[in-house]
Specification:
Elements (H helix, E strand, L loop, with lengths): L3 H14 L7 E7 L3 H14 L2 E7 L3 H7 L2 H5 L3 H9 L2 E6 L12 H10 L1 H12 L4 E6 L3 H6 L4 H11 L7 H16 L2
Parallel strand pairs: 1-2, 1-3, 3-4
């Protein structure tokens, strides 16, 4: 049985968080564990008239960091650069099935890799500041995260969906109201 909160979260993401428009190039990233939300976001983007592309994470980073040589750690794919320079919308889904998988990887290897990606990060934030890229990080509750939070999966799902206001009849209206209230309280 489908959880209707997933569909509501997808609508909130596409129509409020990033406000995807027809013919915009939308990148959707997430682990295989987030397939229900990825699918719902993909569908919402199509219904909007956008051009969604899905880039699933298969959690191969442990294999990569354990085996890659320095030149591979430093390599930046031209495909990654193309996406960074051309996507209109970037939707990432937080659904890491093993948040501790890189614990035993030598931190110097991680530093080399991150340093090689600095330019991509700069491109990303420059495009965001120029209004050329909109992005969001959406949560998707999975068992591993529930364990990290010391909750059952059902409790963690309720927590996540309630915090995103998708337990409400109209989450988008609720977020707009919340935004308006924040602006009122920010004025002096």
């Amino acid at each position: 049985m489908k959880d209707e909160r997933v569909k509501k979260l997808a609508k909130l993401c596409v129509h409020y968080s990033v406000n995807a428009k027809p013919k915009e190039k939308v990148v959707i990233r997430g682990s295989a564990a987030a397939k229900p939300l990825i699918s719902a976001i993909y569908e919402e983007c199509l219904l909007t008239g956008a051009y969604p592309s899905v880039f699933p994470s298969l959690e191969l980073d442990y294999v990569f960091f354990k085996n890659a040589e320095d030149h591979q750690l430093k390599f930046v794919s031209p495909f990654e650069r193309f996406i960074a320079e051309n996507a209109d919308v970037n939707i990432s889904i937080a659904s890491d099935p093993n948040p501790k998988r890189l614990t035993n990887i030598d931190s110097s290897r991680l530093k080399i890799f991150r340093a090689s990606r600095r330019e991509l990060t700069e491109i990303f934030y420059k495009r965001v500041s120029e209004g050329k890229l909109r992005w969001t990080l959406q949560p998707f509750p999975i068992e591993a995260q529930a364990q990290e939070a010391a909750m059952s999966l059902a409790e963690y799902e309720d927590f996540v969906y309630k915090s995103c206001l998708v337990d409400r009849r109209d989450p988008i209206a609720e977020w707009k109201k919340s935004k308006k209230n924040c602006r009122k309280s920010a004025t002096f």
